[in-house]
Amino acid sequence: MEDELVPFQPTHIWTSGRMDSFYLKINSSLKKRYPKTLSITGCDNQWEGTIKDQLRSMLGYWMYRKHFDFIWVPGPKQEEFALKIGFQKNKIIHNLLSCSPIWFENQSQLTQKRILFVGRLVPNKNIQFLIDAFELLPKEFSKDIFLRIVGSGDPMNLKIQHSNIEVFQFESQEKLISHGLNSDLFCLPSIHEPFGVVVHEFAAMGLPLALSTKVGAKPVFLNENLNGFSFNPNNVNELSEKLKNYYSLPLEKKLDMGKRSFELAKQVNPKSAVDSFLSIN
Predict the structure, then answer these.
(1) Spans in the chain with pLDDT lower than 50
(2) pLDDT at 3
(3) Domain-wise residue ranges, the chain
(4) Three-state secondary structure string covering 100-126
(5) Residues 56, 166: Cα–Cα separation, whole Å
(6) Which residues are bridge partners to 266 per DSSP?
(7) SS3 call for 250
(8) What is the 3-state secondary structure (H, E, C) of 15-41?
(9) Half-sphere CA count of 14, side-chain side, radius 13 A
(10) What does the pLDDT read at residue 153?
(11) Which of 6, 27, 208, 230 has the most other CB atoms within 10 Å of its CB?
């Protein structure tokens, strides 16, 4: 395959799998033969200051900059990572990730009191934490509120006591939109979430957002208290209290928050992603 690609003479190379040594080999071969070819990689890593991050910073040239002229990121947390590993600001492009335009065509009326989670049923999504926060709500307060969990994986490990908690296996895009239309708050409680396109999807549907501080999409799609709120993914009492505060708001306030989510979502779309890529020269 390498021999087939080298004569191609591309002006730009987009490499999505930086960890694949074969991809890097192709990249290097093309760059060696055609020095004017521009190479770009995507990155959704957040800078968290961990030992692993520090090593990436020290080895930034060998791991990234040796192979790529530009790095494409989805938001400010990922831009910080790119800067830390040595990319100059003019070598960083934005709007890497976007939801499909179909999400913008469906707006929730926010009339049903339902918290929605969509994602894989894996530990880093912190789903039990969300369940525990919901079950901490006063019984009389939560009797008319539902929590809907939609995702692929084994739900058997979830400990559920409240009768208003609903669990669905992962479904088609059309059915996910239906879940959004029947919800009035989207929550992503992850303890590790590099970005999270799912946030963009439900913001585009006009849902207020409840996001863990570890969600990489938070700076792009959440304005604190204007279209939702953030929380510490290790503090179940904090989330429960913020859910209680949210469900004490009048519908008019929730609708204003939903409109703000929609406006923030509109700032990123497939066209803006393409335009960012085409800006490289």
Answers:
(1) none
(2) 61
(3) 2-94, 101-266
(4) CHHHHHCCCCCCCCEEEEECCCCHHHC
(5) 41
(6) none
(7) coil
(8) ECCCCCHHHHHHHHHHHHHCCCCEEEE
(9) 12
(10) 85
(11) 208
**Token output for 127:** 């789903």
In CATH, 101-266 is 3.40.50.2000: yes
**Residue 159 region, left (φ>0) first, then alpha (ψ -120 to 50), else beta?**
beta
Q: What is the pLDDT of residue 104?
A: 96
Q: Are 6 and 33 in contact (CB under 8 A)?
A: yes
SS3 for 212? strand
CA 46, distance to chain mean position in Å, is 11
pLDDT value, residue 62: 87
pLDDT at 6: 61
Strand 209-212 to 114-118 pairing: unpaired
Nearest to 227 by CA among 269, 189, 194, 184: 184
Q: What is the CA radius of gyration of the chain?
A: 21
User: By 3-state DSSP, what share of the chain in percent is helix, strand and coil, each rounded to 5?
Assistant: 45, 15, 40
- Cα 210 to chain center, whole Å? 13
In angstroms, the CA 233 to CA 254 distance is: 23
pTM of the complete model:
0.93
Q: How far apart are CA 87 and CA 236, in angstroms?
A: 38
Instruction: Determine the pLDDT at residue 140.
Output: 86
